[in-house]
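PROTEIN FOLDING TASK:
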Amino acid sequence: MTATAARPGSTGAGRRAERFARPVLLAFLLVATADLAGLLAGAETVHLVAKPLLMPLLAGYAALRGAPRLLVAALLFGWGGDVFLLADDDLAFLVGMGSFAVGHVCYLTLFGRGEGRNRGAGRSPSGLATGAGYAVVLVVFLVLIWPDLPADLRIPLTGYSLLLTAMAWRAGVFGPYAAAGGALFLLSDALIATGIAEWPQAPAPDFWVMLTYIAAQALLTLGVLTKHKTKHKPGA
């Protein structure tokens, strides 16, 4: 007997949650579109209003879809990072980075549990090759950017980068969507780091940061939900 069958009415509750999930997902997509359009148009007020709404909406969607609590927690810690990074202040930046770091720990814990159900996934030849590739990219990037970073941010950014790179690598345990999300998260934060280092930037740099970040969190969520749904389908 499955867990669903053991609880009368749980199927109906799940269907009701699904009905609520779709409007929440639509709201997330609309807010994301407004945020990105606002950045392209230089409408800072739109960004200030839209950005703090993104992760709560995505977390709400994930929760309504029956996501693991660690995914919801990771998204909400991402929301904390989003809010603090809106302030143009070094302390707020460090607190925001710390909030994102806790979110990455949530992701890593979730991915570790996923590998536990799929033994050896992260230690397969392809997984090890991907990890080696990420390590090379991280070392080269840090060597190049280190001299241009403010001295007081070098150590915190290095520690955060190690954690983020580990998360991006381990995301592959949850399939290609999550793997792409992890890679985009790494790219988004690399774009932020190049801005801090005052490297030459593409036009509308904040747009590219937010585009890659929103896509990263959405793909990580999709990857986890897809894996979670497969694991809990009837008869599984």
